[in-house]
Amino acid sequence: MFNKITLIGIGLIGSSIALAARQKNLAKHIAISTRSEKTLQEAKNLNLGDSYYSDVKQAVKNADLIILCTPVGVFENIMKTIAPSIKQGAIISDVGSVKAHVQKVISPLLPKGVHFVPAHPMAGTEYSGPSAGFPSLFEGRWCMLTPSENQSKMAIKKLSDFWRELGSQVEIMDAEHHDLIVAITSHVPHLIAYNIVGTASELETVSKSEVIKYSAGGFRDFTRIAASDPVMWRDVFLTNRDAVLDMLGRFLGDLDKLKIAVEKGDGAALEELFTRTRAIRKSIIEAGQETSDADFGRHV
Ligand code: NAP
Question: Among 49, 135, 151, 296, whose CB has the most other CB atoms within 10 angstroms?
Answer without folding.
Answer: 49
